[in-house]
Design goal:
There is one protein chain. With 194 residues, this protein is an alpha+beta fold. The chain has a single domain, classed as Glutaredoxin (3-Layer(aba) Sandwich), CATH 3.40.30. The chain contains five helices and eleven strands; from the N terminus they run αβββββαβαβαββββα. The strands form three sheets. Strands 5, 6, 7, 9, 10 and 11 form a six-stranded mixed sheet that branches. Strand 3 and strand 4 form a beta hairpin. It is globular and about 40 Å long. 34% of the residues are buried.
Length: 194
């Protein structure tokens, strides 16, 4: 029983989850443009590809989607480190934070997440986040209940292989839970060379 409680408690500190009681939205269609505005006012446009997304006008840039929630402790703990990762890789990578599993205002995110945890990368609180997340999960055929933080990385509209620190799956294409920044940086360095 102690082992079970330990495993259960350790999962709480690694990832957060909430049950979503909404109907999944239909995936975006190929060529569809998704206009996003960050909580700080900057804008970006995604273009739907066959099985992924690219940035309009910067199609060669690597995209890292960070699906998170402001209530999530691991999300808070890694936010400043993600900011450092974005700064270090700004020429090649765009980190897009997708606020998910909650309904809060942009001002709430700025005051209670970005400001408190130095998360000044591109965070969107768009009504389209749910559909983007559903499309990502469909693209990678992810069936379990979504836990956050959850990240995927795309290059040229294709999902990239990422280090699985928990199950050592060599064909993994997502990060689940709090992942050490050096692991992400190593993966990004490999992806940049492709």
């Amino acid at each position: 029983m102690r082992v079970f409680l330990f495993v259960l408690m350790s999962l709480f500190f690694v990832a957060c989850s909430q049950e979503v009681k909404t109907q999944p939205k239909k995936s975006f269609t190929v060529g569809e443009e998704i206009h996003l505005k960050s909580v700080m006012g900057s804008e970006a446009t995604l273009i739907r590809k066959e099985q992924g997304f690219v940035l309009k006008g910067n199609e060669d840039k690597i995209i890292m989607f960070d699906i998170f929630g402001t209530f999530c402790q691991p999300c808070k703990e890694e936010a400043a480190h993600l900011m450092d990762l974005q700064i270090k890789n700004a020429d090649d990578v765009m980190l897009i934070g997708l606020d998910h599993l909650e309904e809060v205002s942009d001002a709430y995110i700025v005051d209670n997440f970005s400001g408190k945890y130095n998360a000044y990368y591109f965070i969107t609180n768009s009504s389209q986040n749910e559909q983007i997340v559903a499309t990502i999960l469909d693209d990678i055929n992810y069936k379990p209940i979504l836990q956050i933080p959850f990240k995927v990385v795309l290059k040229n509209g294709a999902y990239q292989l990422l280090t699985d620190i928990y199950e050592k799956n060599p064909a993994n294409n997502f990060y689940l839970g709090k992942v050490p920044i050096p692991v992400m940086q190593t993966d990004l360095d490999v992806i940049k060379k492709k």
